[in-house]
Specification:
Largest sheet: 3 strands, antiparallel
Low-confidence stretches: 16-25
Structural class: alpha+beta
Radius of gyration: 15 Å
Number of strands: 5
Mean pLDDT: 84
Length: about 140
């Protein structure tokens, strides 16, 4: 359900449970590599026999990374983004604020890679523009 995934995204706990320093360092490098790959069209997305996606991508460091994640359609990804934008978080001062700042290539790459890959699969190198279009 889009609202449930949006709530997980806003909380930032999609990949919760990865606590070792090595895993956290990998996540940081993988996030940067995802953003680079999407921006430069350096990712190959393929559907696996179990219905999930396999994404092979290259970062700026020329290292090859691979994500295996649930498959979402572009429409489902857009519904999740709409649900993220429809919810508001609370600032440290108790003021309601928009979650727009979370819906970026970097935010999707770190908070919910399956949504990033769904958007990339549909839009290729123009993924950033497609995401920006949803924000406008």
């Amino acid at each position: 359900d889009a609202a449930d995934l949006a709530a997980v995204f806003v909380r930032g706990d999609y990949m919760e449970g990865r606590v070792s320093a090595g895993e956290m360092a990998y996540d940081l490098h993988a996030r940067e590599a995802r953003v680079y790959a999407v921006s430069n069209g350096k990712a190959e997305v393929s559907k696996r026999s179990d219905g999930s996606l396999s994404v092979k991508y290259t970062g700026q460091d020329r290292k090859t990374y691979r994500d295996v994640c649930p498959q979402y359609s572009e429409e489902q990804a857009e519904q999740v983004i709409a649900a993220i934008l429809a919810t508001s978080s609370t600032s440290s001062r108790g003021r309601a604020r928009s979650n727009k700042h979370l819906v970026t290539l970097d935010g999707l790459a770190s908070r919910c890679p399956p949504i990033l890959w769904a958007m990339y699969r549909a839009n290729g190198k123009s993924t950033a523009g497609a995401i920006q279009g949803l924000l406008d």
